[in-house]
Amino acid sequence: MLSPLETGVWTGACAAAGLALGAGGCAWAAMGPGSQIFGRALTAPRRPGELALTFDDGPNPATTPRLLDLLGSHGVRATFFVLGCRAEAQRALVGRAAAEGHVVGSHSWSHPNLAVTAADRVREELRRSKEALEAICGVPVRFFRPPFGGRRPMVFRTARELGMTPVLWNAMTSDWREPSGVRIAERLWRKVDGLTRRGWAANVVLHDGGHREPEAERGPSLTAVELLLERYKDTHRFVTLEAWV
């Protein structure tokens, strides 16, 4: 039998644990790429052997042209989630990506964490970016990836109201801070191979830009892309996200 003091301590500990679990669950719902709690998002279908290369935070005048050259040399099309504010400054580069058959999607206007952004600003971030990209590319923008993966129910609802499918991912590393392209590629190989064994396609995220630096150095990410293209050229089909809707 517990004493009153022990009972109080136990009750307090249980309450604290419950709050911690609740906070952890909310964090996963708002930020976890595998969570569908706050709304359905496109990740990847059960199509082992398909691989979508997606790139966030561009366009980057120092990296994106080299990336487009690399993809073009392999005949591979990818999906670019670009920032509206950067697209306005690099219109020709975004237009080139679209003209070469790549899919251009929205990554918001300025890269806030939409899980904690006021609702009116969320709508403005998505609307402004979509309209800018459509003016540049001349085609509807159909896909939206939230910065950091951050969302809450109204974020995905707003994206859908604007005609965009929310997109997350199932294969990513911290390529934006890893100095070795080989290590980036090796980590992604393990993820892609594991997804293939389990019967899933791979939705790979890399970064051709940086939300804090318009001309961030992304040489290691480019090296990783080249290694991925070489490794999977005979075993996987490279697709854009349009193949999965």
List keywords for this structure.
alpha/beta, TIM Barrel, 2 domains, six-stranded parallel beta sheet, two-stranded parallel ribbon
Describe the structure.
The protein has helices at 4-31, 64-74, 84-89, 91-99, 119-137, 153-161, 181-197, 219-232, and strands spanning 50-58, 79-82, 103-106, 143-144, 165-166, 171-172, 202-207, 237-239. It has 245 residues and is α/β, with parallel strands linked by helices. The chain folds into 2 domains: 1-31; 50-244, Glycoside hydrolase/deacetylase (TIM Barrel). Helix 7 runs parallel beside helix 8. The longest helix is centred in the N-terminal third of the chain and has 28 residues, at 4-31. The model is unreliable at 1-21 (pLDDT under 50).
CATH superfamily of the largest domain: Glycoside hydrolase/deacetylase
Per CATH, the class of the largest domain reads Alpha Beta
Element-by-element helix/strand order: HEHEHHEHEHEEHEHE
| Structural class determined from secondary elements | alpha/beta
Q: Give the radius of gyration.
A: 20 Å
CATH architect. name of the largest domain: Alpha-Beta Barrel
- How many strands appear in the DSSP assignment? 8
Largest sheet: 6 strands, parallel
Distance between the termini: 59 Å
Summarize the model shown.
The protein is of the alpha/beta class and 245 residues long.
